[in-house]
């Protein structure tokens, strides 16, 4: 996230931490160069459109401020072209909300980025969950969760039509007479009352539809993701649970008529590595000494809707809400020895989430955990180099080009030359 | 404009023309480097959110396509950071519509760009005039002209509050404890039903409010511009008329309580220069040989609402509409010898607008017309170098810093440290 405190409030104060330089363009271009040198698939930028506003009372702004808990933040679209200019293969995932962005304007923005990055762009589709985002964009309150996913489904269909269906594949010829051939660009949602008549003003880009990321975990979220996603983020869990989730995802994908192998999965993990296990654990403790625990509780409040400022310090917490909260919090400590039997009180929640948020931690040497890139490469479980230049090709790895796969619901809107 | 055919349809086919590379990032970074080497104040990107759709019948897409008459086009915000990364002083003016963009999302985008460019960003405020833009963003039809300007006025006040009033000037301190000090960030439009509650999620940038460009020419447009603009584009006219317009602007500005000298004016001019006058005129004729005249008439249709496809080739045109149309068209030929007495028929309209659109042309050697930058510099009428690093400082040239001037209506929303 383009903020000093994404999942580690207060860490911007660490001497080696550069996140408070996020407002400088050099921060982004340096980061992109480092990631491409390490052959990372992509750089993904999360986003929120407001402040967390749950902890210390509804609407509270202040709790996030000292640690910079995802506030302040800036627009994730704008550093992309500066990074694209200094890289060739690294992909860029950008978060944008189907609840608050206009579909035409967003489709145009992604098409522009797909051109300027030469096909290296992914869209992390979110429906947004902060009350403050709703009041920022002018709504009285949030659209209910399941309705947001229904909106998102219609929204994606509308944007597929703009990207895949408005320009025939052979519309742009740039010969000695014509840039675009008349008759090969059309309205895609001709109904007077529908949301975006088109045609998209932007000519077809390499991928047309950006590669689609999604992280839906609720029941409506999963139904949406298994229909539209090409890559899913799975929230922090242990390997056994991840396996079950992946199997469920593939099963649901098949039920939706998709090829289950065209949905890639990313299990999030927070890695702290050093030469020895001991050094790595010391590093973790050192990081913790910079953590802003109020910031942790602010983020917990926004994610769960639970304001822990109303809970006493010595109260044992019982997570009776959605299972995801229990799972989110308990998974954080799975790999930190010595914490298994500590009681879940407010201080522990704050501390477990402080470095890396609600994701399992892998802390240790690269020889103990499989967490060092050179070590992973030596073991043959991580590629030596990018296999292609576009996001879709590098993530799918199936040699089938930069366009949507045929099983994807967006592909049926494609306007072929033949 | 980020398009192959902004004000010269068909010219993308000229061997030295690079506009069809507008979808490549190198096109933009090369352009920015050239402009900064020449000490140009800024690069300004116009925009439209649809196709012209008047010429050859309401809703027509095809007429624009061969010449690429402002179609296709891409989002003007996205190449900015790539250009900012290769320059230090050049300013970037970006067009965005108050009718179609959400004020919170737009304010955040400009604040982000002001950070990433280190204060080199300007907003060209437009209310948009294409029917196709309305149907692209989901409206049934356009908001009427004068109402659009009323909306724009409220819109700007809302964004001033986000930029100037949400974060106290000393809110961000980044000391060993606090990134931002609690109590120094606030809601700015607390009414439940108003359009953007804030606070802006983005910390204060160098200029806070981007430098404001405007080109309003109608009566409601001028009232808006003389209230909000810091720099006005004046549409193509002869020097005498420009002088009168500038005097009117300054008079209206005073009536609105502003210092008339804080509104800068730019008289648009289309320059074709070569070693001798004869060579320059030959160059113009060569350019004309690449022009797509259907594209010219497409743009004329969109600007005026008049579909010249319904007019016979030998019909003498009488411009009985708003004075601006007459002025727009006739001004184009003011400096082209031999065209004064040619009748205004369809072919002449198309030809006069074909190279550079509705702006007066200066065609000749730099010694005849004051049109070559080295010659202008030799005469002491153009600066030798940038006077500062931010847009507002370079345009105002008054040594009074990067923030809004005190006479500007946005300055009263400023939340000062004292």
TrEMBL record, chains A, B:
Could you give a GO molecular-function term held by this entry? Answer: monooxygenase activity
- UniProt keyword Oxidoreductase present: yes
Q: Which residues form the Luciferase-like domain?
A: 18-290
* Source organism, top-level taxon: Eukaryota
What Gene3D superfamilies does the annotation carry?
Answer: Luciferase-like domain
Q: Where is this region: Disordered?
A: 392-418
Keywords in alphabetical order, please. Answer: Flavoprotein, FMN, Monooxygenase, Oxidoreductase
Q: Where are the transmembrane segments?
A: none
Biased-composition ranges for Basic and acidic residues?
400-418
| Keyword Flavoprotein tagged | yes
Q: Which InterPro entries match?
A: Diverse_substr_monoxygenases (IPR051260), Luciferase-like_dom (IPR011251), Luciferase-like_sf (IPR036661), NTA_MOA (IPR016215)
Q: Which Pfam families match?
A: Bac_luciferase
Q: Which family does it belong to?
A: Belongs to the NtaA/SnaA/DszA monooxygenase family.
- Any idea what this protein is called? Xenobiotic compound family monooxygenase
């Amino acid at each position: 996230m383009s903020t000093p405190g994404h999942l580690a409030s207060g860490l911007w104060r660490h001497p080696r931490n550069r996140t408070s330089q996020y407002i400088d363009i050099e921060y982004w271009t340096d980061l992109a160069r480092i990631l491409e040198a390490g052959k990372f698939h992509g750089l993904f930028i999360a986003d929120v459109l407001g402040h967390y506003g749950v902890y210390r009372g509804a609407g509270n702004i202040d709790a996030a401020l000292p640690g910079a808990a995802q506030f302040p933040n800036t627009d994730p679209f704008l550093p992309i072209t500066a990074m694209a200019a200094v890289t060739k293969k690294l992909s860029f995932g950008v978060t944008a909300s189907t609840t608050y962005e206009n579909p035409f304007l967003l489709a145009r923005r992604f098409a522009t980025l797909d051109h300027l990055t030469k096909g290296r762009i992914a869209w992390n589709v979110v429906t947004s969950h902060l009350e403050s985002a709703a009041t920022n964009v002018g709504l009285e309150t949030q659209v209910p969760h399941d309705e947001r996913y229904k909106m998102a489904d219609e929204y994606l269909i509308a944007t597929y039509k703009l990207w895949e269906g408005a320009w025939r594949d052979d519309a742009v010829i740039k010969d000695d007479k014509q840039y675009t051939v008349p008759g090969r660009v059309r309205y895609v949602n001709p109904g007077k009352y529908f949301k975006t008549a088109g045609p998209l003003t932007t000519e077809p880009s390499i991928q047309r539809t950006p590669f689609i990321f999604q992280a839906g975990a609720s029941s409506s979220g999963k139904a949406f993701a298994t229909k539209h996603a090409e890559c899913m983020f799975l929230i922090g869990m242990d390997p056994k649970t991840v396996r079950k989730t992946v199997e469920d995802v593939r099963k649901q994908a098949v039920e939706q008529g998709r090829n289950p192998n065209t949905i890639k999965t990313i299990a999030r993990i927070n890695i702290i590595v050093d030469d020895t296990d001991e050094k790595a654990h010391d590093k973790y403790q050192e990081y913790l000494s910079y953590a802003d625990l109020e910031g942790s509780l602010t983020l917990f409040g926004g994610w769960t809707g639970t304001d822990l400022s109303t809970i006493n310090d010595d109260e044992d917490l019982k997570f009776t809400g959605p299972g995801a909260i229990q799972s989110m919090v308990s998974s954080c400590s799975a790999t930190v020895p010595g914490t298994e039997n500590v009681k879940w009180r407010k201080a522990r929640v704050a501390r477990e989430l402080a470095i890396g948020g609600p994701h399992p931690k892998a802390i240790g040497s690269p020889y103990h955990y499989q967490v060092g890139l050179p070590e992973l490469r030596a073991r043959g479980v991580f590629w030596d180099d990018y296999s292609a230049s576009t996001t879709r090709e590098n993530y799918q790895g199936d040699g089938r080009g930069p366009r949507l796969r045929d099983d994807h619901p967006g592909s049926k809107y494609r306007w072929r030359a033949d």
